[in-house]
């Protein structure tokens, strides 16, 4: 399909077409382009992506934690809260972005609202499950030794739930990094922006597609590693 | 913090669970003198554990009163009350996320003791319960069942409480280690002289550990409260006699040693020799096994003290 057009002089890539042979032939990876556009395209997109993810997981954690406190303290509240977070999680991301646009417009807020709602499910479940998993005899010992309800929560239940909570944060972070790329459909923001831009070129701008996609993957792997190390450092006892 | 042992009085203490027929603990009245070990024993459904948990208000009383050194538990702040009572349970309930030292320091930290004080105290307590200092930095998951229970005991003793509640503390431990822990606990008690309420379902453990034994029957009623010897020799009724077992006469023999007997002068040669601190039960077992009628009692150096006959033992 591309054969005749290539024969006619190769593809025209509007903004990047006056470059090297590598670019003119649209090879999969042209280091010169990456070097040239790291500063004005890739790095800003990476930082935006990181920001989108950090804010979404941060706010999501705050909301999920409060909901989990309610669901943990009042058992009857757990099933409905779980069901709501579950429902939010099942809405396809594209559909959710579109549903929100009339409300919050083509803004970063729209993206964040959607991303936050996706984190709630895994965070809520993990926090509640972690708190519930504290052994009964440990709680009895705490009560019998004269720890108050608040002391029991802060010194016993919360630290013992930490491995499950951190595991939830890991899953939420990695999945947010992946969903956030789709956010570029709403607004040109994050690593999704260069990816969509590359896809919209007549012949797909391969170097841009590949480098932005690779950055998203590396970001996910790096976040996962950092959080795994954090988990090991904070809860050395959980690996015994 | 009080440091001496406290007298514990159950005064018509009663627990009735709403919607359940009969009482769990029924007008229980008994006094545990300061510094003594009172064992609560009885069949399941006898309310032993319930009676124990009434003391630190893990289970609220529905009638009567319990007093520690004359002060009703109902007049004290429940959190303060619990901090002033050592509490040991069968499953131990060590905090898995903190070290042995951290676990031992739990109650002292609640009392805002300085870090250095807690460290010293944990060194002292580890030694007291027979654990090496190297255990201080370990996590509970790195300990055996027996070691965990020792740490549980150390943790309960950390704030030097005048009263200890122990709910089947050695119940989940294999028999050999259990016997050793019982022995060490009794040696420890010689040093620290706490008032102890100790729940068990094992009559032999009750006889071995208790200064006094309270036998509870179904419905939480007290069947007998007495010294092990009196319970074995004069059971109050059929229930108690049945509960302590048909071999109660033998169990009673286990409470005495050869040293307590009036010995006759050594005249025979070739008698089996036994040290004076041997229990009458073991001495009798030896006579039966060797088909003999008498044995020679010797002191720790092997010097003969006199002869004990079968009649002597069974008197």
Structural descriptors:
heterodimer; A: 240 residues; B: 315 residues; alpha/beta; 6-stranded mixed sheet; globular
Quick gist of this model?
Chain A has ten helices and no strands. Chain A has helices spanning 3-7, 21-24, 31-73, 78-90, 93-104, 108-132, 136-144, 149-180, 192-200, 206-234.
Helix content of chain A: over 70%
Instruction: Describe the global form of chain A.
Output: elongated
Please trace the helix and strand order of chain A, writing H or E for each element.
HHHHHHHHHH
Question: Low-confidence parts of chain A lasting 5 or more residues at pLDDT below 50?
Answer: 1-13
What percentage of the residues of chain A does DSSP assign to strands (E)?
Answer: under 5%
Question: Can you walk through the features of this model?
Answer:
Chain A has ten helices and no strands. Chain A has helices at residues 3-7, 21-24, 31-73, 78-90, 93-104, 108-132, 136-144, 149-180, 192-200, 206-234. Chain B has 13 helices and 13 strands. In chain B, the strands form three sheets. Chain B has a six-stranded mixed β-sheet with strand order 6-7-8-3-9-10, with helices on both faces. In chain B, helix 5 crosses helix 6. The termini of chain B are far apart. Chain A binds chain B through residues 135, 137-148, 151, 155-156, 159-160, 162, 235-238, 240, and chain B through 56, 58, 79-84, 87, 89, 91-98, 106-107, 110, 139, 141-142, 152, 155-156, 165.
């Amino acid at each position: 399909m591309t054969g005749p057009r290539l024969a006619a002089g190769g593809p025209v890539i509007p903004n990047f077409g006056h470059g090297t042979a590598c670019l003119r032939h649209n090879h999969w990876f042209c280091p010169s382009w990456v070097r040239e556009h790291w500063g004005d395209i890739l790095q800003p997109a990476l930082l935006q992506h990181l920001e989108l993810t950090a804010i979404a997981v941060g706010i999501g954690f705050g909301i999920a934690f409060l909901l989990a406190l309610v669901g943990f303290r009042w058992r009857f509240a757990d099933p409905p809260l779980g069901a709501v977070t579950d429902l939010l999680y099942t809405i396809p991301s594209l559909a959710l972005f579109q549903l929100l646009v009339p409300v919050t417009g083509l803004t970063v807020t729209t993206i964040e609202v959607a991303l936050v709602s996706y984190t709630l499910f895994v965070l809520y479940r993990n926090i509640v499950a972690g708190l519930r998993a504290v052994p009964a005899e440990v709680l009895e010992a705490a009560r019998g030794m004269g720890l108050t309800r608040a002391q029991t929560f802060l010194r016993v239940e919360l630290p013992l739930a930490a491995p499950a909570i951190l595991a939830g944060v890991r899953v939420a972070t990695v999945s947010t990094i992946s969903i956030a790329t789709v956010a570029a459909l709403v607004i040109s923001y994050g690593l999704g922006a260069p990816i969509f831009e590359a896809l919209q070129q007549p012949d797909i701008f391969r170097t841009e597609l590949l480098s932005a996609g690779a950055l998203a993957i590396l970001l996910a792997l790096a976040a996962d590693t950092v959080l795994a190390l954090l988990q090991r450092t904070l809860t050395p006892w959980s690996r015994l | 913090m009080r440091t001496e042992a406290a007298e514990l009085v159950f005064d018509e203490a009663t627990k009735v669970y709403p919607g359940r027929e009969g009482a769990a603990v029924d007008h229980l009245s008994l006094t545990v003198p300061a510094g003594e070990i009172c064992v609560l024993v009885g069949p399941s459904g006898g309310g032993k554990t319930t009676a124990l948990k009434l003391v630190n208000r893990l289970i609220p009383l529905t009638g009567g009163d319990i007093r520690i050194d004359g002060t009703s538990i109902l007049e004290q702040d429940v959190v303060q009350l619990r901090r002033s009572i050592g509490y040991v349970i069968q499953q131990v309930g060590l905090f898995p996320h903190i070290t042995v030292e951290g676990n031992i320091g739990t109650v002292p930290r609640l009392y805002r003791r300085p870090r250095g004080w807690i460290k010293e105290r944990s060194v002292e307590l580890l030694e007291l319960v027979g654990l090496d200092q190297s255990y201080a930095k370990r996590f509970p998951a790195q300990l055996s069942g027996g070691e965990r229970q020792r740490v549980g005991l150390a943790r309960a003793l950390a704030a030097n409480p005048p009263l200890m509640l122990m709910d089947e503390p050695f119940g989940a431990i294999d028999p050999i280690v259990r016997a050793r822990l019982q022995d060490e606990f009794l040696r420890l008690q010689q040093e620290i002289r706490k008032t102890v309420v100790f729940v068990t379902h094992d009559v032999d453990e009750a006889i071995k550990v208790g200064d006094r034994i309270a036998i509870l029957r179904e419905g939480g009623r007290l069947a007998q409260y007495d010294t092990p010897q009196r319970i074995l020799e004069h059971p109050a009724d059929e229930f108690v006699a049945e509960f302590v077992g048909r071999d109660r006469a033998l169990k009673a023999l286990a409470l005495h040693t050869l040293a307590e007997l009036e010995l006759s002068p050594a005249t025979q040669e070739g008698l089996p020799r036994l040290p004076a601190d041997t229990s009458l039960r073991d001495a009798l077992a030896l006579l039966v096994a060797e088909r003999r009628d008498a044995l020679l009692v010797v002191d720790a150096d092997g010097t003969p003290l006199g002869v004990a006959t079968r009649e002597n033992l069974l008197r």
